[in-house]
Amino acid sequence: MLNWGVIGCGVIANTFANGLACLDSGKLIACASKSMQRAHAWAESQKSEHNINKVYNSYEALLADEDIDAVYVANTHNFHYESVKLCLQHHKHVLCEKPITLNAKQATELYTLARQNNCFLMEAVWTRFLPAIRMLQKVLSDNTIGEVLSLRADFSINPKLEPSHRLRNKALAGGALLDLGIYPITFSFIVFGEAPENIQSSAVMDSTGVDERSFYLFEYSDGRRASLSSGYSHAAPTEALIAGSSGYIRVPHFLGAQEFTVYVEGQEPQTYSFPFNANEDFSFEIQHMHDCIAQGLQQSPILPQDESIQVMETMDTVRAQWGLRYSEE
């Protein structure tokens, strides 16, 4: 049984707590926020599923607690690097919400520190651990649709956000790319199994200085392509289309995929379905981390540290093409 603490008591921490409550292999015993009032309120909100009897108003105090084995880092992007580093310095295993850092240099430093301190560190990209995605990778590796030639994927939302909202706030490392675009980019790694050879991108910039909508064209060897996009100011279907030499695959809501349909020339379409309820969203990645730690692993075989860094390098290249940098870099 792994004892968990949470750093950052916001919305995404709720999703983690819900996922952990679905499992018997870990329990949530502590939380920390820079606001004691916020930390107490969040602990109280979780009492139907968790007995959080340790509430801290500093991250250092939580990390000094010897009862805590692992920490979920759930604060805003700009704080990930320093928070994860602090956890590792206290020899805690860490699951950090995506993106793990702002850039590949920071990510590389943290993964190196994790190995040095014999800690398990994983980026929380829940998509990669879903049963439907694991089956999709098998279908692709079996060449069911022949050679994969192209991918189209978009993740966009259209809420009405104030300039201070974290998605629009440059001081909080906001922007569509790091929060939303990481999903179609991750999906391209899932589909092609490698980083692109060439990257072309463009962005519509918000008045706050971050990308409001962004578009990425990836080129691979043998003419393979991925056309990807994300944004927080327009409505679009969240889906992926994988085209092969003898068929294609549609993946509705690919980032939280519960099913996909394979269309092969001359055959009836086949749908693979792996349903789960909303509370289980993060349970698959959490259970995977529990299993890895139990096996004495320092990194995930599903999301190896090198691939996590490659995704960050890809996003570094994209942002560099727009000249977008954050103050922490």
From TrEMBL:
Keywords: Oxidoreductase, Signal. It holds the Pfam family GFO_IDH_MocA_C3. InterPro entries: Gfo/Idh/MocA-like_OxRdtase_N, Gfo/Idh/MocA_domain, GFO_IDH_MocA-like_dom, NAD(P)-bd_dom_sf. Residues 134-250 form the GFO/IDH/MocA-like oxidoreductase domain. Residues 2-123 form the Gfo/Idh/MocA-like oxidoreductase N-terminal domain. One of its GO terms (molecular function) is oxidoreductase activity. Belongs to the Gfo/Idh/MocA family. This is Putative oxidoreductase.
